[in-house]
Amino acid sequence: MYTKEASKMASFRSVDELNGAIRTHIYRNKSDLTPAAIEVLKVLSRHAETDYFLKVCNCCL
Description:
Largest sheet: none
Distance between the termini: 14 Å
Low-confidence stretches: none
Strand content: under 5%
Radius of gyration: 13 Å
Structural class: mainly alpha
Helix content: over 70%
Shape: elongated
Number of helices: 4
């Protein structure tokens, strides 16, 4: 529906790139992040691997 707008705002080209950024962010900032913030990032990473997310990302590329 809004694929053109979404593609303009996409920060990552792939799920692997997103997951790498999440891992790096957690590693570099773990001492400043709350346990809840770390868990939210991990949930985002897990859900990024679902088929729905992949379909949305692929139509934005």
